[in-house]
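yo

u said u wanted the structure for the complex thing, so here. seqs first:
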Amino acid sequence: MIEKYKEWYEARHEYAVQWKKKTGGKVLGYFCTYVPEEILYAAGVLPVRILGSHEPQSVTEPHIFAMFCPFCRDCLAQGLLGRFHYLDGIMISQSCLHLRQAYTSWDLHIPTQFSYYLPMPHHVQSRHAVPFLRAELETFRKRVEDWTGTTIGDADLRRGIQIVDRNRELLRTAYETRKREDVPMSGLEAMYMVVSSQMVDKAEHTQVTEDVVRVLEGRSAGRSGTRRLMILGSENDDVAFVDMVESAGATIVQDDHCTGSRYFWDKVDANGGDPLTQIAERYVRRLPCPTKDWPARRRIERIVQFAKEWDVAGAIIIQQKFCDPHEIDIPAIRKALESAEVKVLFLELDVTVPVGQFKIRVEAFLEMFAGDDLF
Amino acid sequence: MITAGIDCGAKNVRAVILMDGRVAGKASVPAGMDAASGAEKAFDAALKEAGIARTDVSKIVSTGAGKNEPRFTNDVVTEVGADARGIHQLYPEVRTVIDVGAEEGRAIRLDARGKVVDFAINEKCAAGAGAFTEAMARALEVPLEELGALSLASTQAIPMNAQCTVFAESEVVSLVHRKTPKPDMARAIHDAIADRIASMARRVGIEEKVALIGGVSRNVGFVKSLRDELGIEIILHTDPEFVGAIGAAVVATDQ
Amino acid sequence: MAERYRTEPLKLWNKAKELRLKFYENYAKAHERGGIRWAGGAWTLDALPRGLGEDVWSLTSEPYSASIAFNKAMSLRCLEASERAGFARDLCSYMRNYWGGIILNEYAFPEFSKTWPEPDFIFQDHICCSHAKWYQVVKDLEGEIPMFCVDVATGPAIECENGDFRYIPIPGHAVEYVVGQCLDAIEWMEKVTGRRFQDELLRKAIFNHFRSTSTWASICELQRTVPAPLDEKSMYSLYVHGTLGKASQWCADFYEELLGEVKDRVARGIAAVPTERVRVMSDTQPPWAFLKVFRYLEEFGCVSVGSLYTFGLIGQWEIKADGSWGARTIPASVDAIPEGREAMLAEYVRYELNKPEWQHFYHPKLKSAMMVKIARDWKLDGVMLHYNRGCEGLTVGIAENRLELQKAGYPVMIFEGNMGDEREFDEPRTKARIDAFMETLGLKREFATP
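structre next:
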């Protein structure tokens, strides 16, 4: 059943088209994981993440200046090439400037019923962020109500929270099993698991993941003795790259990506209070994107904690070319990891990965550990 | 009316004698270190082919990177202006012209009168399509002239990074390591350049008909990749390197 | 071809220079005088630290970094020092210059300080992804200097339809969010400096802020005149005061004096560029090491009369009853500003969130609408967009601005460069591009000095 994730990932568009046919519901494409999916689920809307296709293209040059990251161009290209033709709406929550352009150009050039920019606060470490976001979520709720012709009451919101939280819980449980010496799932499988959860109905994903989590109890991925690594960076659904790393004698056991742990790690934990406040608290408190990780760098604390608890020997920092918010943190991350005795490999990724070239570097990186074993 | 156009490129200088709108003589010489003397030589050779003397020419206009070097010209026009006027003279129906040379790529959109509406020049990171194919031909150990034909024999498309020349080169190395068939590598290279050039051309907005000029338009592999990427027909000129010089000679006919 | 207009140098030119130098001197020597020095961006809410006393001096990061960039030799040293410390070359070039100066322990004005004068605290705004992150690194480099950042990215203050734009009221929760952070910041400043905050000084500073930002917009309004009384290259030397100390008395006073002189130039038909035939605007910060590009334009009789950047980085605007875009109306006197810390902050924040250069962060269509308005009302013939590799914040959406300007009928030229890293600017190729653009505008290089 774990193969289901890959199927979903590869047939994401067919899935969404089928889902619409089956349910008659609306599908909304979102650009950033700060989008409050709870409210969309409460309204019966299916949120699907807009990701790239890792292919060269020539359609975004008129819209996005070349110094912005390849990921935002790849995302916009999907829209311009008509691959998300089934979307009823699009939205973004305020995060980095790069991805924002994919959203705004999409908004300008690809007609959709519903388009929304949610001013997610940046100063998430301020006590004023939650009331501000609460008010924004209230406006957003009304806009979604108008669009869908539904009423989103508190009970609906709690249901939305419950749907999303349950999925988060299971993904986290699955990640916990990767602490085992005999890892029950490969990094590639884990990547498919999380990324597919951004593409399919959470209820359906949860159903499969309930089973997966049970199976993982007694499963071995047969990767004992390989080098335990974690990967970090912005968005990463580069399956070819992860496959290459794992076939070179490593296993990825944890990550800090918004297509990985940053997406699902923190729950809302509704406790009967005001659901919008609780949703706001969750997004303010969650594992931050570096754009919001100031004045203190909380993300780095978490990365080091993950490295220790998942017992990794090394980390690969995957830099999306031109991604300033991540790039600016790299010297600090490197320092923190190295002082925790985690070796670091830095790689800069573009739309497609020069696998052969990177393989040489990954192999050299893994050789460094072999040296440690000797002495 | 007899006019002359001199295109002082970085690698070659090309001269054209235009007699009542018809090319009466043309010549190309290597630019060398001294663009001025190259221009003299090219001009003289073109005059000779046309069978006329310098004094028969009423006006001479130069263009190209070294357009200010020759002393004997009467006026200058930019490469963008020369391409536009040249193509308009040859193919008045053309609205978009793409010029891919050794060091620079350009896309120009013109109106029905041949006036430039918008133009784009490749940015630093995507520069040098011609130089890039040369380097890639060396990497594949194939003569440059054969690279185009080779890619027509390809049976599969391999996506290659289109954003940055340096990354693209490292990808070619990976392909070599993976023992990818040479025709497929050649095509991957041409597809990548075609992506970059198409990106630039889309910036000015593709309006048909589209003409491709410049030395790289002789590369049949690249032309096929560009046609496929843009999904339209492309007009090619038999003397693609001379369009700029023709355009300069046309400018010289202006009062 | 003969010159068309009379020109003369600005009378206030030397004063402008002196004020700028004084600013850097005051910062460097603040401690000698028992004062406080702090650092923050040019957009930070700098009226706040002024509540700590009259002997509080700041260093604003962007204009300071531009000063480094202008000094090619120092800039290269700084950029390389940042690179050696592990920072990537494609990061904001202002940051890299600034960090480099700290790493090298150099001040860009050695006549005032031989070494880098560390600030006592950092007070920064945040709307660009790099704003707070910039100072996070500064904090690392300087050893835990106290830092406070205020998020001002609360959503747009204008909306547009069919190319026309209008201001919309700032929602209450947005004002509360920013004011809340400001109140926290004030408490924090009292703690880190050990001083008592004086609301009356804050009130004065807010009034000065209103004066500076509105008066600067009035000066820019006068650029509608043909011939333009100022050219953009000179405006860079004049808007800078707003980026140094928009909430200071000296800046507000200077702008009022400058407005008088520019009005006089208009009345007497004095041109910045005597050969003015064609008018353009630019966008984003220029490549500071290559301002001569603007002189090159003059050789064609082309003058850049400004940009949304020079008009709206500091200037505050509003839509007037006749539909024109003009200087924002401000309270008549300091007494018209409400008393009480929270109330005056609310007035300040509600005003400042209208900043034109904050709007494109939400959507390029908002910037396009303002740019098209400038193109029409300032009688432009074309636009030159600087695709600035050094600044994500101001180039975000720039490609869409280009398309929109073209749709509105304006020829647009783009040139790639970098405001603070001259290694990314290609002078001959940029000039070749300008040549081609001028040719399409029907201009020849007639005014080149042999």
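Strands of chain A lie at 27-30, 46-49, 89-93, 114-118, 227-233, 250-256, 314-320, 343-349. The longest strand of chain A covers residues 227-233.
cya
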